[in-house]
Amino acid sequence: MATAQLDLTWIGGATERRLRKRRPGSDRLPWGTICAAELDSAHLREARAVWTNAVFTEYASAAAFASFSSACLEACAPIDLTATITDCAVDELAHVELASRLLAELGGAAPFETDLEKVSPLTTVGFRAVMRAAEIAVTTSCVGEALSLPALRHGKGTTQHPLAQAVIARLLADEGAHARVGFTYLAWAEERTTKGEREHLAELALTTIAAYASLWQSSDCACPKTALTTSIDANYRAAMRRAVREQIARPLAKVGVDLDPERLAALLQDTSV
């Protein structure tokens, strides 16, 4: 499939009722409270870009947790653990709906071309299932979802519009479990992996953290500020660095994945000052 504009659809009917039953409450959010015509053009463009990216990020997370679940089944991971990971994929699709509905009130998605056939995470070719699942646990849950927590908390505190705050609160309510489940998997997998495999996971964790480093190394955001978006400031950058140390590196060490302290320190330098 060629790269194309992000365009997600909805069937409704029985499938919608099933999702509503398992993820209730979305209709109680303050929908219909955004008046795009009241936003100046720069603010509207920024808000649409931010929430379009949010839709794709949640969609990609759903694909990652679905792949994580499949690898867990192949690795014969505990059934309750695998079920929890599978449920995380449904959470993420519910998040896609929420972000998409907010985006619709802004007038629709900003230009965002992607190839959804490549949305699932890549794992190392030739690895056995227990390690393929471990790689996704590290990249998606232990790093990606762990960093989404401080980002969402900061966003909830600085975003001013009631609908944006409500959507972020719903996302935030799920993200803690999404971050913890990766460490739960790695704890189960620790005795089923070798020292060399865990060293590979540590290297992968550092590489993944490095991919997010601009979140705490960049200067304050110069883009137009709107009530529907969040600010990027010193408090945000400090929260992200703290999350890497306390919510990623320390829990990984407890499950046998030890990050090189010098490399980690270099990644956590604040280059904005």
Give a description of the structure:
The chain is mainly α and about 270 residues long. The chain has one domain (about 40-110, about 120-220, about 230-265): Ferritin, CATH 1.20.1260. The chain is about 65% helix and about 0% strand. It contains 9 helices and 2 strands; from the N terminus they run E-H-H-H-E-H-H-H-H-H-H. The protein has helices at about 15-20, 40-75, 80-105, 130-160, 160-190, 195-210, 215, 235-255, 260-265; strands at about 5, 115. The chain has a two-stranded antiparallel ribbon with strand order 1-2. It is globular and about 60 Å long.
Strand fraction equals under 5%
Broad shape = globular
Uncertain stretches of 5 or more adjacent residues: none
Number of structurally distinct domains:
1
Helix content: 55-70%
Order of strands across the widest beta sheet?
A: 1-2
Distance between the termini: 43 Å
Features:
273 residues, mainly alpha, Ferritin, two-stranded antiparallel ribbon, 9 helices, 65% helix
